[in-house]
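For the sake of clarity, the format in which proteins appear in this thesis is described at this point. Each number in the token line that follows is a code from a learned vocabulary of backbone shapes. One such record is shown here in full, so that the layout can be seen directly:
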Amino acid sequence: MKIVSWNVNGLRAVHRKGNWRDIFTLKPDVLCLQEIKAQKEQLPEDVQNVDGFYAYFNSSQTKKGYSGTALYSKRKPLSVSYDIPQDITEKHNLCSDAYGEPNREGRVIAAEFPEVFVVTVYTPNSKEDLSRLPLRHDCWDPAFLEYCVTLQNKKPVIFCGDLNVAHNPIDLARPKPNEGNKGYTTEERRGVDNMLEEGFLDTLRLFEKGEGQYTWWSPWGGARERNVGWRIDYVFAGEQLEEKIQGAAIHPDIMGSDHCPVSADFDL
């Protein structure tokens, strides 16, 4: 099973630029998208319906043209769930803030297959002034992790998406100037530490130990061309899948977004 994840930064924009079909050159079995920024009915027909794939969309319920996720699968899932369950959100007080209700912004889809759960996630960013950091650190990160652990108690979990954080200094080109900035605060990085402590594996780092492995670049100053970027998009897998992970990669040659896709291959 090949999992491909991509923050498209607007699915209609990717289609308009002519890059939509490029993602399928990676031959995904499950394709997970984040930040689709559209309701299903707003998408072109060849995005809503892709030959050979079942498609599922979770669009923002609070405002159109914002956030949202999608999942395409060659096999029909046993079940598909949307958002973080209410009992978990209530436990972690994952409610509204000044920006809205994060669990109604279309940020999570979980698909159950016979072997695994595959979860796509678009984690709220903390904002330039860090005004959403408390919600992110105190509510969203623990709630999402508990959801994944709950699923993991049933069968192995693969979760992927834009986590909006560079975990270690190696994961961004300029760590020192960005210390404490959005996407590289101690609190956000601790969220990834907690994932690892729960036994989830950062699949890319099982195969790629070096620098320069970035998935997002600022649109300014030729950052992508110079590879001055951040790794904020991930594929994580439960540790019981470790022997089944055959490879993981980033794909900076796929254009159309300020993010590039990431992938992992599993022998399931």
Q: What stands out?
A: The chain has a mean pLDDT of 97. The chain has one domain: 2-266. Residues 133-152 form the longest helix (20 residues). The longest strand covers residues 2-7.
